[in-house]
Write a structure and sequence with these properties.
The protein has 492 residues and is of the alpha/beta class. The chain is 41% helix and 15% strand. It has three domains: 191 residues, Spore Coat Polysaccharide Biosynthesis Protein SpsA, Chain A; 122 residues, no CATH class; 166 residues, Rossmann fold (3-Layer(aba) Sandwich).
């Protein structure tokens, strides 16, 4: 197991402190000078560590990291930001984190600690930095398998700032079939001083969010563990301000007053949302008031600019918007017309496979034929109890779509008809053509195809050979089926 440390930098003074922290490192370090002008050389401390400096021409951190990892030949590339401080045992912990990882693991994320002041409440900027401690996949401390970087082409250099480029890469690595795991090594990310209106300039990220949506679909925020954002409220605030100004110009005083009050209320709520958790000093309140007035229109402007700039961008390798599972024979062992929750037994690997999808943020559903209800063999209450036991053993599902009709009832929901698949997609609010259905019979994959979804067959003893031969994708077990669903590859 070999690795290279890659550090992109814009010449921050903190780089020297970082390299000093790595003085005991026995692996090579690549520092990527991303300053726009090829001026004076970087001033690096003498630590005895082998440091090689490359230039990337000021094209941003994504391009700088690409320059770095493409210049390496080691199995792993450990990315650090130039403003972090690894712990004294970081190198040993990194080796421990990486050693023994299987080829299906594409990356290992370090733990980030953000020290906040103890004598007062943190400012808005400090709270923003503190969010890095719980963020997914940030390259402040992230080790990638070089083969995974090669497979997906590395960082997308259209992300020109230190924003979203790390999440974009992680989603593409996951979509290529790799797992990303959490390591035990620890790195401190100090809170650095920020400019008074840094939060206003940060609204440029709304353009990058458009690129994320184009690349990864409408559910990208949930998949990276991010919240819904405030853009809709910003749009409403901006619209209220525009109506107030327009009405005032036209001397429609009542409309102007109403819109002005709406703008004031929305702006006050936004400012209070940012002020109340903070130290509430005069300077902090002043910054929050000024930036809370400026942020909504600036955010909307950058969002519009992003929509225009990225309108022709095609999707990346896409993971499913949702994965839907047959119940009997796929998630749990098939017990014909089961009425006893105690008889529910998950198939091997089911819980781990489902949790894999949950970790990524992909919603799950169950699509199951239960004709025993129509035949009088299962009562609705018994069906509900068995389904509840399935959820108890395997974790929550966001959608249950159950057909209780018999074969001769002529319904449109019973598989192989597409009704259950379409209903589950509607419950989840996702496009049916971005769903994957995993089941153990030909009816499951036929229902998926009829609905426009992708179907993966996991044969069991009751699966007929003609069904296996007719299936476009076949997996030997539920674990492999989930990996196929995530990778976008077509199984044998």
């Amino acid at each position: 197991m070999s690795y290279t440390v890659v550090i992109p930098t814009i010449g921050r003074a903190s780089l020297g402190e970082l390299l000093t922290q790595l003085a005991q490192l026995r692996q090579p370090i690549l520092v990527i000078d991303d300053r726009p002008a090829a001026g004076a050389q970087l001033r690096l401390p003498r630590t005895g560590v082998s440091v090689r400096v490359l230039r990337s021409g000021g094209r941003g951190p994504a391009a700088a990291r690409n320059v770095g990892w493409r210049a390496t030949e080691t199995e792993w590339v450990a990315f650090l930001d130039d403003d972090v401080l690894p712990g004294p045992a970081w190198a040993a912990q990194l080796v421990h984190d990486l050693r023994g990882l299987g080829p299906d693991v594409g990356a290992s994320q370090g733990r980030i600690e953000v020290p906040l002041p103890r004598h007062r409440r943190p400012t808005d900027a400090e709270r923003g930095t503190a969010g890095l401690a719980t963020a997914r996949w940030i390259t402040a401390d992230m080790a990638y398998r070089r083969a995974a970087l090669q497979r997906v082409g590395g960082f997308d250099e259209r992300f020109g700032r230190a924003y979203r480029e790390d999440a974009d890469l992680a989603l593409r690595v996951i979509a290529a079939g790799y797992r990303i795991v959490q390591g035990q090594r620890c790195t401190v990310h100090p809170v650095r001083p920020s400019a008074p209106l840094a939060s206003v300039r940060a609204q440029r990220g709304n353009s990058d969010d458009v690129l994320m949506r184009r690349r990864h679909g409408p559910g990208w925020r949930e998949r990276i563990g991010d919240g819904p954002g405030r853009l809709r409220r910003h749009a409403l605030t901006t619209a209220a301000a525009a109506v107030a100004v327009g009405a005032a110009v036209r001397r429609r005083h009542q409309v102007a007053a109403t819109a002005g009050l709406a703008w004031a209320a929305l702006t006050t709520e936004f400012a209070a949302h940012r002020i109340l958790p903070g130290p509430r000093g005069a300077s902090e309140i002043g910054r929050m008031l000024a930036s809370s007035i400026a942020i909504p229109p600036v955010a909307c402007w950058h969002r519009l600019a992003g929509e225009l700039r990225w309108r022709a961008v095609s999707p990346a390798i896409s993971v499913p918007a949702a994965v839907l599972f047959d119940r009997d024979g796929t998630l749990v062992h098939d017990v014909p017309y089961n009425t006893d929750p105690a008889a529910v037994q998950p198939v091997p690997g089911a819980r781990a496979a489902l949790d894999r999808l949950r970790d990524i943020g992909i919603p799950l559903g169950v699509v199951t034929n239960q004709s025993g209800v129509a035949r009088g063999l299962i009562s609705p209450a018994q069906l509900e109890q068995v389904n509840a036991r399935v959820s108890e053993l395997l974790g929550p599902f966001q959608a249950w779509s159950v057909c209780v009709h018999g074969e001769k009832d002529g319904c449109g929901c019973r598989k192989p008809a597409p009704g259950l698949v379409k209903d589950a997609a509607a419950q989840l609010g996702v496009p049916v053509d971005r769903c994957v259905v995993i089941g153990d019979t030909g009816a499951d994959v036929t229902a998926a195809a009829a609905a426009g979804a992708r179907g993966i067959l996991v044969p069991t003893g009751r699966t007929l050979r003609p069904e296996i031969e007719a299936a476009a994708e076949v997996a030997p077990d539920i674990t492999t089926a989930v990996e196929l669903a995530l990778s976008g590859r077509v199984g044998p």
